Every structure is written in C-alpha cells, then in structure tokens.
C-alpha cells in the first residue's frame, strides 16, 4: 500500500459520519454519566456514614473495655512485652556470631508431665525419654536466640550412664557444667532447668486468660557464691514482675548442710540457678508460655 492510499483511508475515516455522533446520542450519554455520578456520590455518603457509626461503636467498646474489663492493665502488659521483644530483636543481627552467654542443662532430664503422657502414665512415675523437661529447655533456648542471646543447651540422658543411681545425678551433671564452663569462658549464666513435683493448683497461674506455669528459683546457700546467685534470681524476678505482674516467681534458699551432692553445682559458677518451671501436672504449652516469659527476662539482663 502506497503512502497516498494510506492518507486517503485515514481522511475517509476521519470524516466518516460514524466519527461524528448525533446530538441525541451525546445528550443520552451525558444524562447516563450524570445519573451514575449521583449514584456514586450516594454510595460514598452511605459508606462515610457507615465508617462514622462503626468508629463510634468501636470507641464505646474501647471505653467499656478500659473501664470494666481491666483493659488498661492488659494493654500495659502487652506494651511491656512488645517493647521487650522489639528492643531485643534489634540485637539479633549483631549477635549472630556472638559467643554463648547462657548454658542450659537438665540434671533430672526425664522429668515429664501427666497431661502429655495420658494413659501411659498408669502405674508409672511421671518420667519419659521422649516428652520431658528437655523440650522445655530447648524451647527456652530457641526463644533466647530469637531475643539475640546466644545459648548452649545440653540434653544428656544421665540415666543411660553405667551403674546409674538417681542419687548420683548431680555428680554426673557436675561434669557437664565443668566442661561447659571450661570450653566457653564467655558464659554469664548457667541454668539447671527442672519441673516441680507439686500439684497443678500450686504450679499454675493465669495471664491474659491463659494458663501459665509458675517459675521457681532454687538456690543452695551452702557455698560462697550463693549471694551472687541470689542477686541474679532477684533481678530475674524483678524483670518478670515488670513484664507480667501476675507471674511472681518464688525464690527459695536451701542449706544442704555441707552435702555437696545437694549444692546443685552452684558453687562452680557465680551466676548459677536451679529453675523449676511448672510441675508434673502442667502441659507443655503451659511450660512453653512460662519459658518464653523467662527468656524475655533473661534477655533483658544479658544485654
């Protein structure tokens, strides 16, 4: 097709009657557009009114929550927890290659939980090689890592040692602690994590409508380092109470009267604690909730 033919076709289309709509068509189109615009404005007005009414209802509900349902306390708790998580997250990157600060181990590693064992518990002690306190220690370490605290965990099963006797447990775990301290001079805190043997009503509290296992710090007062250990326990208790006032950890001083097997190996390091999280009648979920709170408190001190 020549250029002359192309110009002819373009001019023909340009001046075609189809390219010049009638006045009637133009008027009809104008009226249709105006009608649609009015409907749009009406819908927008209805939407705006809906938003205003919804906002008013939400405001009234918020006032009622604060006034009648302890909303301010729950909000305060959430803010404390949120700020703690936010500030700790900021240190995660800088601690990627950091040396371990916390060491977690379990002298009584088979301690388990009745709700998790079910029918397999009948006629047996509350122990398990699979579902036991080592899961809680692992969860605690994972939360500490999330908060930027480098953590070592030992899950040695001392019951598999030759000629094992329960009364020798602390002597066996003593070797574990000594080795960890020797190979990791960066350690600042050492925790032997257990669960208590008390009943559920004594090892459970409720926070924001959820059951949470209690936390109990046990300190042997028979060694020269107990004051430093007590200081650490007191600081952790303070941190936890600031985050969650309903979870007030207990601190117990025990004097084993020179019995080295009952010093809980705390004379090996001046920031050592035996920590009981919940009891034999708590579930793992309740244990985990307490462990996460404990991790927040530890991370606040570790930083």
UniProtKB/TrEMBL annotation:
Does the keyword section mention Membrane?
Answer: yes
Positions of transmembrane segments:
50-69
Q: Which InterPro entries match?
A: Spore_II_P (IPR010897)
Keyword annotations of the record: Membrane, Transmembrane, Transmembrane helix
The domain of life for this entry's organism is Bacteria
The protein's name is Stage II sporulation protein P
What the entry lists under NCBIfam families is as follows: spore_II_P
């Amino acid at each position: 097709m020549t250029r002359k033919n192309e110009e002819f076709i373009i001019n023909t289309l340009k001046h075609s009657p189809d390219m010049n709509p009638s006045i009637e068509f133009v008027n009809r189109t104008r009226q249709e557009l105006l009608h649609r615009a009015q409907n749009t404005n009406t819908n927008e007005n209805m939407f705006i009114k809906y938003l205003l009414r919804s906002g008013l209802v939400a405001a009234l509900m918020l006032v009622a929550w604060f006034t009648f349902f302890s909303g301010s306390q729950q909000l305060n708790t959430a803010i404390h927890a949120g700020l703690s998580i936010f500030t700790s997250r900021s240190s995660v990157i800088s601690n990627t290659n950091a040396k371990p600060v916390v060491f977690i181990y379990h002298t009584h590693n088979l301690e388990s939980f009745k709700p998790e064992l079910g029918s397999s518990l009948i006629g047996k002690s509350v122990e398990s090689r699979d579902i036991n306190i080592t899961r809680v220690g692992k969860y605690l370490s994972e939360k500490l890592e999330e908060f930027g605290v480098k953590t070592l965990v030992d899950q040695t099963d001392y019951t598999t040692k030759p000629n094992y006797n329960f009364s020798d447990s602390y002597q066996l775990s003593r070797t574990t602690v000594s080795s960890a301290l020797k190979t990791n001079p960066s350690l600042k805190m050492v925790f032997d994590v257990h669960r208590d043997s008390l009943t559920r009503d004594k090892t459970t509290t409720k926070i924001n409508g959820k059951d949470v296992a209690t936390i109990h710090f046990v300190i042997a007062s028979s060694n020269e380092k107990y004051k430093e250990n007590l200081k650490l326990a007191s600081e952790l208790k303070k941190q936890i109470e600031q985050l969650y006032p309903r979870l007030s950890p207990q601190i117990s001083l025990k004097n084993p009267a020179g019995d080295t097997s009952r010093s809980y190996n705390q004379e090996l390091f001046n920031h050592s604690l035996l920590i009981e999280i919940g009891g034999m009648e708590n579930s793992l979920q309740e244990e985990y909730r307490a462990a996460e709170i404990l991790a927040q408190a530890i991370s606040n001190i570790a930083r």
